[in-house]
Amino acid sequence: MNVFGKKGFKKWMPLLGLLPAIIVFGAFKIYPSIMTFIYSFTQYSGIPGTPLHFVGLENYKMAFSGFSGIGKAIRITIIFALCVTLLQNALGLFAALVFNKKTRGTVFYRSLVFLPVVLSVVVTGLIWSLLFSPIGGPIEPIWKAVFGHSSSFFGSNTLALPLVIFVQIWQNAGFTMVVYLAGLQTVPTELLESAQLDGASRWQRFRHVLFPMIAASTTVNVLLCVIGALGTYDLIYVLTGGQFGTMTLGMDMFNTAFGGSNQLGYGSMIQMLQFALVLIVTLILQWYLRRREVEL
Amino acid sequence: MTVVILILLMAFLTGCDSKKSSSSSSVTLNVTEWTNPSAIKATKKLNKEFEKAHPGVHVHLVDAPTSSSAWDNLNKTQMSAHTVDVMAQFSISNQVPKSYMKNLQPSMLEQWIDAGQIKDLTNEPFIDKYFSKKDQMNLMGYKGKLYGVTMAAYGRGGVFYNEALFKKYNLSIPKTYDQLVHVCEVFASHNITPLMVGAKDGWDQMIVEAGIQQSLPHDQADTLNKELWTGKTTWANQPVFKTVMERYQKLSQYFEPNAFGEPYAPTPGLFANGKAAMLVDGTFDGDAVHQANPNLKFSWFPLPMTDDPEKNTMQVAGDFSWTIPTAAPHQKLALEYVKFFSQPKHYKEWENIVGAIPTQDIKKLSQPWMGTELEYLDNMQYEFHIFTPSNAGDLAYLQTDTAYLKPQGKYTVDQLLKKATQQWTAATH
């Protein structure tokens, strides 16, 4: 039944109602996306009054010309996304299991773990830059006592990427925990009790009862983590500026398009590569995780 | 109800606007410059004098830091909206790409000039107040015309040094590379950090730049660029580049501990408060050091990176330059503003606060640390530019490769030069 009627104004009312949202979505999502695609075939600098200068596939050819740095950026992006997704989910799930009990102080501890999520990226970056400052930072003497040598931390070619991964996880693990908590609270306690009566160990109860029951939460968390991590540039920008082996695709795109060199065309091409990477990884993961949900 | 609230809100906002307009029947001249505390202080002081000399004119100064993209974005938005009257820009300093430089885009300022968006100042009479027209053309000339007035220059690739510490250990200003190493060794032997660099932000690269600038003949800059871009000269086949990198590597052992984790911003303050004997820096930061510790006696000298004192000169580059957009809402007033700043009396006032290398004939500045800098002017050279290809790998540019060099990185000098050559060649062919 059409509640709006079939004639005149009533027929068009739903469309009119949607129009503001369509206009906003079109202006701020569709139009920029189409323009990014078009710019990726140009040498446009983004400077008003300058020509677009179409170069065909030249930007894409340059990206794969061997030493452009894009290959390295893709590799770093994948390592970053893989580590963040695995560790953040493991940590989020662990925290959710720990705080899924109604004991004294649980709400406080949940809030504590969630707290970094509400901090802005810049604040998070500054906090950890100060903590890891090699001159006067509080972590430096501890590091020296434990490892016997000091480090330049975010300025170290070997440590910068692991530290950025750590900070990204620190900031977002609380959100992952909340999604897992929501999933865990839908699991009927009877199921766990009957498994326990049947003699299932704690690990078996988790592996064969709890984990399959929160498959939907896992899917959401993994996809959000992967999409977020593949596109990350803001935190990296604050912590290292993309130096010392932390130049992800997102960071490379930002530096190229907006970081002073004003190569909006080449930057748009990197953005398209990043979009393709996110699309491919997300489609594969979604296909796998949905199939897994059904099987479970 | 919503409609009523909206109408009231609009009426309120309109009221705000009209109140602003009615209270100031004056003309507002919009000026932008990047965030440099001393330059802002100086400009604001002269703005007041300009307003006093031009009743009814209000100068609105907007600034943004260069360390993020904020400055670039401010420039772009103001130019797009045609709202800026006078705009500070970094000097062009002969950095105009040549035709053989594949895929290399000109700078933002050059693109604006090409698009006819920056006013030609070639025949403005106030240009005569500055150093020779040739010098001005070197700094803000583009395709035979002058598009800005360079108010300040700076010397890069030098160090601020703590005069008291030099005196205490009976050290004099080093004139050659070996003397510099000796000075560093003396400080290191007394557990004083010899050099502070802020390498996380690449400030240490000034050492490599100074080495390249002092080692190569400046009149051959065009030839060098052409040979690098055509593959005749490479980072690996010229001994001079190897020497420069080896010398950098040697000096890096005298940096503050974990220098690559230390950003540049706090280093003037750390140096000013005695954390190191020398600070690798450009002359533009003298005021920052002074502000951090007004009691510190310090001065500046160019890093001697060769064995020949004659070659170890101060390398000067243009810095703060006023430009006027052709779409400036108040063209005449904008021109008047730049003319006002160019008057020797006003210029000296501005320069005395900024503390940069002057571009008008000033023999003495009020800042004590500027004394020796002005002496170096007698034997200075304009910095030449090595054009680096766009979108090459991060090892292609010799001066930015320091983080990859042992002991901080994993490459020896030879390995690094080979890698840099490979990436440069791939990007230029």
TrEMBL record, chain A:
Top-level taxon of the source organism: Bacteria
Tell me which Pfam families the record gives: BPD_transp_1
Its transmembrane ranges are: 12-31, 73-99, 111-131, 151-170, 209-230, 270-289
Q: What is this protein called?
A: Sugar ABC transporter permease
Location(s) in or outside the cell: Cell membrane
The alphabetized list of GO BP terms reads: transmembrane transport
Residues annotated as signal peptide: none
- Kindly indicate whether the keyword Metal-binding belongs to this entry: no
- PROSITE patterns attached to this UniProt entry: ABC_TM1
User: What is the species listed in this Swiss-Prot or TrEMBL entry?
Assistant: Pullulanibacillus camelliae
InterPro entries associated with the record: ABC_transporter_permease, MetI-like, MetI-like_sf
Question: Per UniProt, what is the membrane topology?
Answer: Multi-pass membrane protein
GO cellular component terms attached to this protein's record = plasma membrane
Stated family: Belongs to the binding-protein-dependent transport system permease family.
Domain (ABC transmembrane type-1): give its ranges: 74-285
Q: Which UniProt keywords apply?
A: Cell membrane, Membrane, Transmembrane, Transmembrane helix, Transport
